[in-house]
């Protein structure tokens, strides 16, 4: 019998999450039966959606915190998942998990031996796919266009900027520290600035792209979005991926509202979830891996050691501690 540690949501988040909102518990797991496998967490993901999932009733108090992980099969009664194989699964913040296999995805068979498996939660995983679909399916970005991305030094943002460069675009990125800005420049972003220290966000955006933006990959929302809207070019496209500046609000933020720019500049603004294109995932992951192997897609991670530190890693990511993908090594 295996013993799992699990992090549960003790108390609904009110404003920014607190240590006391989480509770570490133990769970006993029975031996795997026919068709079942026992998994052990290797890397766990902490993501912004875990903060606002509550709004959409994905978690209630007492539930195991939701989330994806890379896990190793340690016992198997399922031929598809032999002992030692690695899978991704959305089984939440837990060290061990018993599965019948239906919710497991094997890590790509062509995954190089020397490539960290944690990338299956980042550049070659859900955030990488989000970047790809936001640019190709939603923005329908074209060579020569100018793209703006915020939270640009994070898991999704660094991939957005690099793919847009591969497609021949001018890329402007904003992030919350000088180290992050330096990293964006190292990745090949044409312009990057620290949105926390610029005298005026409006002026900084204008200076970075005096002719305006064709595409806006929106990760932040709120005030930032209001400042960008008047700087969109005619027929611009806005991929509404996230609105992290609003996730911890206790009162909804108020306008300005988007309608005048939407109408007179004939903009297209579209929200999306990465899960809209599941049929594309296998081919898209192969494409991301190929770019990485060809040296066209760099990655970076902020790794927290120890399952016990899941809440700290999660809150740190929400505060902006991470450059690249925030993950926890179990
Ligand atoms: N639609 C979809 O399917 C998906 C959407 N998302 C969304 O994409 C966005 C980025 O996610 P992800 O790359 O995983 O996370 P990140 O790795 O970018 O981490 C979050 C970052 O957000 C920034 N941030 C936090 N608070 C604020 C604020 N008030 N204003 C501006 N920036 C802030 C911080 O960077 P900084 O130092 O720059 O402030 C922080 O590092 C999120 O909005 C998320 O919800 C993610 C995955 C899928
Ligand atoms: C359960 C995974 C959800 C991924 C989509 C994320 C949306 C915004 O952060």
Automatic annotation (TrEMBL):
Q: Does the keyword Transport apply?
A: no
The cellular component terms of Gene Ontology attached to this UniProt record, alphabetical and capped at eight, are:
cytoplasm
Enzyme class name: oxidoreductase
- The primary location reported for this protein is cytoplasm
Q: One GO molecular-function annotation for this sequence?
A: 2-alkenal reductase [NAD(P)H] activity
Please list the reactions this protein catalyses: pentan-2-one + NADP(+) = (E)-pent-3-en-2-one + NADPH + H(+); leukotriene B4 + NADP(+) = 12-oxo-leukotriene B4 + NADPH + H(+); decanal + NADP(+) = (2E)-decenal + NADPH + H(+); 20-hydroxy-leukotriene B4 + NADP(+) = 12-oxo-20-hydroxy-leukotriene B4 + NADPH + H(+)
Q: Does the keyword rRNA-binding apply?
A: no
Keywords of the record, alphabetical order, are: Acetylation, Cytoplasm, Fatty acid metabolism, Hydroxylation, Lipid metabolism, NADP, Oxidoreductase, Phosphoprotein, Prostaglandin metabolism
Which InterPro entries does this chain map to?
ADH-like_C, ADH_N_2, ER, GroES-like_sf, MDR_fam, NAD(P)-bd_dom_sf, PTGR1
Q: Please list the residue ranges annotated as the Enoyl reductase (ER) domain.
A: 15-328
**What's the domain of life for this entry?**
Eukaryota
Tell me which Gene Ontology terms the entry assigns under biological process: prostaglandin metabolic process
Where does the record say this protein resides?
Cytoplasm
Q: Which family does the record assign?
A: Belongs to the NADP-dependent oxidoreductase L4BD family.
Q: What is this protein called?
A: Prostaglandin reductase 1
- The species is Denticeps clupeoides
